[in-house]
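hi!! sorry for the late reply, been swamped w classes. u asked for the two structures so here they r. pasted raw, havent cleaned anything up. first the sequence of the first protein and right below it the tokens
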Amino acid sequence: MSLESLQKHAFEPSGSMWLWDLRHRLMHKEIRRLAGEMGRDDFSVIDFAAGGGEILRKTKEHYPESCLFGVDLTESSINTLRSFEIEGRATNLEDPFSVDREFDIAIAGEIIEHLINTDIFLQSLNRSLRHEGFLILSFPNVNQPLSGIMQLFLDLPPFAAARYNGFHVRDYTFRIVKALLAAHGFDLLRRYGTQITKAPKWTHVLCRPFPRLGKCIVLVLKKVAPPNDAMLIDRSNLDILGLIGELNKQAELIRRS
């Protein structure tokens, strides 16, 4: 069975479920903050890996004039969106994707860790945004205190890492994601963590100044450059420090252009 089939089988049920956790609330709060900064109620949002459409549905409640669009691997997600009169399209997010307009805000919540061809996805995401549009992205933080305990004392992979019989295929830390997104034409505006893993939700107040404590990390970024075709070059021969060096090199070329 292909990875796409495995992912589709795993996430089909979530397309018809309502999952409203701290991460969703924080990302929706950022949409409201950006709406205030833009001074508009008729902005547009595209949600990659829309799931049950939680963030889009909440956005529609607060901003009925906004233009909303969801993208997901599963048909159940798109059917849920359409039941709330929100347009969407089912597609494999590792394939090049295009829409017939540019959006003000893009959302990518807990998706990059499921993708092998991350650069193709980020190319499509960049292309879907207007210049100086905003990206709200979250990812599981493998570099957190619990991960050190699991590795050092239990001989287990880091928490939320790619593992046997799991659906995460990439592991990310803030340093890697920041460099990756800069190379794809995004400037970081804000970052913060969700709550500490296996701890009460109030611990998110500690993770705002110290994001690496958080179960997940949420980033808010601005698009400052068009898609960077140089990012589609295979770099699988590089070790992790060499890869970060290449990402920083691409980001510097963007800054100079």
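now the second protein. again sequence first, tokens right under
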Amino acid sequence: MARLALRLARPGDPDAAVVVAPSADLARQRGAWDALPEHCRLAWLRGRFLAHGSLSLAGGRTHLEFVVAPDEAPILAERLAQLELPASWRIRRDRGVVTWKSGESIATFLGRIGAGPGLLELEARQVSRTLRGELNRVLNAESANVTRSVLAAGRQLGAIGRLEEDGTLARLPHAVRLVAAARRETPEATISEIADRLGIHRSAVQRSLERLEREAAPPLA
């Protein structure tokens, strides 16, 4: 930044005020800013971030803001938009605040100004957040599957008990009785585990369990 400021501050250089002018003069430097190459613009933004920026990654939220003079805030936001990094701005306690809350926008900005450590930390947190969300999704799905399996096994065991009491179970086909016995011996087993244990197809186990519940159901009035 020091070399950039010296180079741009050479006598007669119309671009010098873009970097070294006070904020009150920034509005008059739009033409000079537009004439700067992108690497000079990014160097200026890096300096503004180092001097007036803050990055927060707390509580699972990402927040980056510049706190500048009130008249600089809209100009800074405009310059960021020109670099395809649109940001919101507002006045807070007589100071201009330019803000990003999008993790993607913040990561792009940090990458373009060469803020490697900050970018790595942000990406690490984003990956961690994604993995945590995926793990929660898987756990919720597994929990729902376990709940359904437990409820189904309870219904099936109740049906088997009723069929055994009234003698209906003994009259059912051999394959259905085998599935009923396997279910009673291992109430926690899944349909696939019962199928593997008996050496039959999963669909055959499913049909047998459905028949057991159907046979035990009370007759319709």
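hope this helps!! also noticed smth abt the second:
The radius of gyration is 34 Å.
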